[in-house]
Amino acid sequence: MKGIILAGGSGTRLAPSTTSINKHLLAVYDKPMIYYPLSVLMLAGIREIMIISTAEDKNRFEDLLGNGSAFGLSLTYREQQEPNGIPEAFIIAEDFIGKDDVTLILGDNIFYGQGFTPLLRKAIKNHQHATVFGYRVKDPERFGVVEFDDNQNVVSLEEKPEQPKSDFAVTGLYMYDHNAPRLAKKLKFSKRGELEITDLNKEYLKRGHLSVELLGRGFAWMDAGTHEALFEASEFVKITQQRQGFKIASIEEIAYYMGYMTKEALYQKGKALEKNDYGRYLLDIATREHSKQYWDGQDHSPMLEVLK
User: Fold this and answer.
1) How many domains, the chain?
2) What global pTM score does this model have?
3) CA 164/CA 157 separation, integer angstroms
4) Structure confidence at residue 303 (pLDDT)
């Protein structure tokens, strides 16, 4: 399984904050937004990841994350010339995907919850063709909506329906087989002037190849694409971290606990940032005896048994 983070777009909903910087580099409380989707792919056990962004921002992501080796990853970068829709990412990454399955996550999506990592890994293990993740919302008419039967077989998909057939929105996390680029090329542009991810999912549904994984009550899913949502996401991260004492989406912590980063490397990263709370957090982990026994494997981490 390979991974893609789609971090392109013009970020107009966050202007003027995004006039001179990609929105996925903005801070969600104490770390860049892109750390959150990257942590999801890491927790899923995915190590080959492509980040797709604009031509103007590609170098900025490389400056932030490098080639990924510091985190035990292999990161590559591609440009999306125009915001032509989510499915275009598969066309851009066709040679990267090759004959592998692929998980795509939107760069402004944040997921958090007890048991998220086992759910991800189970989804990958059971994955055959296409898998979407459903999340119950109170205003489904604002989202792409998935309808399913009692056995969680997908019955229909609708984009922003006036009368939704379920309360479950399709989140910005998708798993596909290697046919995704070929099917994406067959899609036609919508009235919005984009290739629509719902249309790609419908192509898989026609073939009886679309399944859904539901995120239950204990999960949080946020799209930090507007000023209000960005503020709410930052508040959520702040409150959760302060009350639990763990960091959400600390990619250095995850890399260390998964065996991708040495304790010395973690310590040096913490020293470089020791003037702020994030750096001191990394230093605390690096200097704590038997620190791995405190890791519960959730977003701030997967259960250690899952990793073995």
Assistant:
1) 1
2) 0.92
3) 10
4) 34
